[in-house]
Write a structure and sequence with these properties.
Elements lengths: L5 E4 L2 E2 L5 H12 L4 E9 L4 E8 L1 H18 L15 E10 L3 H19 L3 E5 L10 H4 L3 H8 L21 E5 L4 E7 L4 H11 L4 E2 L1 E2 L6 E2 L9 E2 L6 E8 L4 E8 L7 H14 L4 E7 L4 H15 L7 H12 L9 H4 L1 H5 L12 H9 L7 H24 L8 H36 L6 H42 L5 H26 L6 H33 L1
Parallel strand pairs: 5-7, 6-7
Antiparallel strand pairs: 1-4, 1-5, 2-4, 2-5, 3-4, 8-14, 8-15, 9-12, 10-11, 13-14
């Protein structure tokens, strides 16, 4: 199944003192189903509130629009005072890709949002960063130059024509900057020192802008300048990184405080390693680190895999284990317990009811299956049996990767273990999806059927739900079939002591394909019309059954031969 598309929105509203007003704006965000409000951070001195929420793109865009609309109704910029630069009731509204979506797509969503704000609310909108329409407007400081007070004159000039909305001063709402940018991570690395000067030395080593060049003594020497009088700089090691050293009285340690502005350029683990290497050269030691705020899951998975590769260990282990390796390797739990469920965006978005069956223990799952309810049934069980088959193949790959004397083959087996994890995870998701598909049919049958229009709506809903209930077990069969490549390789080349485990995995995969095929066929009996779809499904499920039978039989012969 495809990865869920998640984006983050971080609007900044020009109100940080009136909590009732702020609550009305955030309530507009909460009113959109599918959006999760993660953080509300008001500032009295700045008179500004930063709000963070996430979800799939369409609901996030809708929630952002409703929040901008509510802010325009409640905030009067003509009376606003605060220390932070600002030009509108909703000053900035960036969209950020989190997972399952590319920046180019986020740019399009930012432009959709900007267009709605401009056309429906009559607020001038400027696009910035990745969504910008001119090079100058990429820079938020340029877009916001002169702030709210400069808008009446700016809007009269052709070069300041908004990207959306009228080129006319909106006295109450001002103007809004809508953008698309990369995910920014606030990250602190802990040192075994209280010296801010030494922490700054490490920060200057690693940050992109580095340090000022000096003549003679690097600390006190005369600053070297270019022909325009600007200080010359020696660039640091890491691109897209801002850093400074500071002392944290609460912990009694100095830290390197960093903003990682593009984690594709400099990932978290690379920043950590650069700090560690610089600290070691200066007689210091990194003792751990601290994540401020939330991160996408990929950040910690990439870090965990980096440290596993350094150990020449298999990467094909459950994601929970990979994240645990990352937390330990980065020392993220040095200052306080690190709870992935509260720090990783995707985990915060997961709703238990969406994975109700998979979240159960074995005994509860068996009892739920045995109950009087018709779901979970054969489809969910087929998906689960297939997941067990893939898990067995993955286990053999991991055992083989760590087998004494096979060190040079660890990458080969690791790649197979990763494939097994992907298949297993997909089948586990299908366990609950098959039950949801069945429930969808039941809901369709409960629709009213009094009038001709209601009957037509009900027939269409039943047809659609039945089609989905065919597609899910078909997906189960074809996904389980993919496990045979892994299982065959493990029977032929894996740890000889585990050959029967791989063979049992093949039996599970065959059972999953046959069980899913029966679900496909029984649901096809109730599917009316669309003969092309019926023919395609029958051809695909027949091919899957035939291949599974052939491959399972071949693997049983190989296993039997090896055991005699």
């Amino acid at each position: 199944m495809s990865q869920k598309r998640i984006i983050e929105c971080v609007p900044n509203f020009s109100e940080g003192r009136d909590m009732q007003l702020i609550e009305q704006i955030t309530q507009a965000i909460r009113s959109v189903e599918g959006v999760k409000l993660l953080d509300v951070d008001p500032g009295k001195a700045t008179n500004r509130t930063v709000v963070t929420f996430v979800g799939e793109p369409e609901p996030v865009v809708e929630a952002a629009f409703r929040a901008v609309k509510k802010a325009a109704e409640l905030i009067d910029m003509s009376k606003h005072q605060g220390e932070h630069p600002r030009m509108g009731a909703t000053d900035v509204c960036p969209l950020v890709p989190v997972s399952g979506i590319e920046m180019a797509e986020v740019v399009e969503y930012a432009r959709q949002l900007g267009r709605r704000i401009g056309e429906e609310l009559g607020i001038p909108v400027y696009l910035y960063e990745e969504a910008a329409t001119t090079p100058q407007r990429r820079n938020l400081a340029y877009v916001r130059s002169g702030e709210y007070e400069a808008l009446p004159e700016k809007l009269k000039k052709a070069e300041w024509k908004p990207d959306f909305g009228p080129a006319a001063f909106h006295a109450r709402a001002g103007a809004t900057a809508v953008g698309a940018r990369d995910f920014l991570i606030a990250y602190n690395v802990n040192l075994n020192t209280t010296s801010v000067r030494r922490a700054n030395a490490v920060a200057f080593d690693v940050r992109e802008k580095g340090r000022v060049k000096r003549k003679g003594n690097p600390l006190t020497g005369e600053i070297l300048r270019d022909e325009t009088g600007q200080p010359l700089r020696e660039p640091g090691l890491l691109k897209a990184v801002k850093a400074i050293g500071w002392y944290i009285e609460e912990y009694g340690i100095a830290q390197i405080s960093m903003n990682l502005t593009d984690i594709k350029v400099t990932p978290l683990h690379r920043a950590f390693e650069a700090c560690r290497e610089s600290a070691n050269r200066r007689g210091l030691r990194v003792t751990g680190s601290e994540l401020v705020g939330l991160v996408p899951k990929s950040v910690l998975l990439d870090a965990g895999k980096y440290f596993l590769r350094k150990q020449k260990r298999s990467l094909g282990i459950p994601e929970e284990e990979i994240i645990r390796i990352a937390v330990r390797s980065l020392g993220l739990d040095e200052l306080s317990p690190f709870e992935p469920g509260k720090k990783i965006i995707e985990y915060l978005l997961e709703e238990e009811e969406n994975n109700r069956l998979v979240a159960m223990d074995l005994r509860s799952f068996a009892r739920e299956t045995a109950s009087e309810s018709p779901a979970p049934g054969g489809g969910s069980i087929s998906a689960y049996v297939g997941a067990l088959g893939a898990a067995l193949g993955t286990m053999v790959a991991n055992l083989s990767a760590h087998k004494r004397g096979w060190d040079e083959r660890w990458e080969f087996f690791s790649r197979w273990a990763e494939q097994g994890q992907e298949i297993e995870e997909e089948l586990l998701k299908l366990v609950d999806e098959d039950t949801r598909a069945f429930e969808g049919i039941m809901q369709a049958f409960r629709l009213p059927k009094g009038t001709a229009e209601e009957k037509a709506t009900r027939r269409a809903a039943i047809q659609s739900a039945t089609r989905y209930a065919i597609e899910i077990p078909l997906k189960v069969a074809e996904t389980a079939l993919r496990a045979f490549d892994l299982l065959e390789t493990m029977v032929k080349e894996g740890n000889p002591n585990s050959i029967t485990d791989a063979a049992v995995g093949a039996l599970c995969a065959r059972a999953a394909v046959r069980g899913a095929a029966m679900n496909v066929r029984i649901n096809l009996l109730d599917f009316k019309g669309d003969e092309a779809f019926r023919s395609e499904v029958l051809e695909r499920i027949g091919a899957a059954e035939e291949q599974a039978a052939q491959r399972e039989e071949a693997l049983m012969k190989l296993t039997t031969k090896a055991l005699t």
